[in-house]
Amino acid sequence: MKVRIGTRKSKLALWQTEFIAKKIKEFFPEVEIEIVKITTKGDKILDVPLAKIGGKGLFVKEIEEALLNNEIDLAVHSLKDVPTYFPDGLGLGAITEREDPRDCLASIKYNTLEELPNGATVGTSSLRRKSQLLKLRPDLKIKDLRGNVDTRLKKLQNGEYDAIVLAYAGLKRLGLDDKATYIFSPYQFIPAVAQGFLGIEIRLDDKKTAEIVNKLNHYESYLRAEAERAFLKRLEGGCQVPLGCYSEISGDSITLTGFISDLSGKRFLKETLKGKKWEYKDLGVKLAERLLKKGGEEILREIY
C-alpha cells in the first residue's frame, strides 16, 4: 500500500511530515510513503499580516483541495493553523502528542522581556502575541514579522528587531532551541489554540488511511487540543482576534485558561475553568462564553 502525504514546503513543515512518515513506518513497515509538497497562499503572501488577508486557513486551503481531489491521502498540519471548520468530507484523523506549547523570545542582546530598553522594537505579526506583549510592556514598538523560522531569525540577526517572539516548538523541532533567549510561562503568555500539536487531516470515507493514522493519535493530547479548539470555535476567532487558550490535564481533571483582548492589550480578559476531562468540549465552550459575558462580546464587535 502507498500513502501520499501532503505538506507545505517550509523546513518546519517538511520536518513535521518526515516525523509523521517515520511514525507510520514504525507501525506499518510495509507501507510505501510519498511526500507531496504543496505551496499554499499563506506561503506566497509574505509582506502582509495574516489577519489582513484571511487568517489561518491560508496555510491549508490548497492542501485540502489536493485531499478532496484524491491527489494525496493525508495532510500534516501545525494544528494551530487549522480552522475549526472542515470542508465537507474532511476531518482530523489523529492529533499527535503535544510538543512544548510555549512562546519564546529570541534576541541578540537581551535575555528577557524586562531587559529590553524602553521603546524597543519587537517582531511578530500575531495579534495574540502583540496584545500580550503590550499588556506586559506598553512602551514596546511592535513591528510585523512574517516568513519561515529561518527568515525571521535572519531579520533579527540583521538588526531589524531588538527581539522577536516565536513558538518554542518550531525552534525545538528544527534543532534551534539555543536561539530562544527566554521562554514564557504558558500562564504569563498564553499560547495559540492548539500550539505544539500536529493534526493529521484525512478524507472521512477513507477507512484504510483512517486505520493507519489512528495509531498516531495521542489520547490526552486529543482531548486538550479539542477543548482549546472548542473555545476558539465558540468565539469564531481566526487571526483577526487577539485570543489564546491553554489546557492541562491532571488525573481526571482538565484545566483551561483563555483570554480575549483588544488590539492594544489594555482591555485584557482572562479566565480559568476546571472540569472533568470527558467534558473537554463543553468546558472550552463554557470558558469562551464566560469571557464573552465579561466584555469579550464588545471587543469582538469592535474588531469585526
What does this molecule look like?
- By secondary structure, the chain is α/β, with parallel strands linked by helices.
- It has three domains: 2-96 and 197-217, D-Maltodextrin-Binding Protein, domain 2, CATH 3.40.190.10; 103-183, D-Maltodextrin-Binding Protein, domain 2 (3-Layer(aba) Sandwich), CATH 3.40.190.10; 232-303, Porphobilinogen deaminase, C-terminal domain (Double Stranded RNA Binding Domain).
- Helices cover 35% and strands 24% of the residues.
- Helix 5 links the parallel strand 6 and strand 7.
- Helix 9 packs parallel to helix 10 (280-303).
- The longest helix has 24 residues, at 280-303.
Q: List the total number of helices.
A: 10
Question: What is the number of domains?
Answer: 3
- Anisotropy-based shape: globular
Question: Class of the largest domain, according to the CATH hierarchy?
Answer: Alpha Beta
Q: What's the pLDDT, averaged over the residues?
A: 93
Taking Cα atoms only, what radius of gyration do you get, to the nearest Å? 19 Å
Low-confidence stretches: none
What is the β-strand count?
13
Helical amount among residues, as a percent range?
25-40%
- CATH topology group of the largest domain: D-Maltodextrin-Binding Protein, domain 2
* N-to-C CA distance: 47 Å
| Secondary-structure content class | alpha/beta
Descriptive key words:
35% helix, 304 residues, D-Maltodextrin-Binding Protein, domain 2, alpha/beta, Double Stranded RNA Binding Domain, 10 helices, 5-stranded mixed β-sheet, 3 domains
Concise overview:
By secondary structure, this protein is an alpha/beta fold. It contains ten helices and 13 strands.
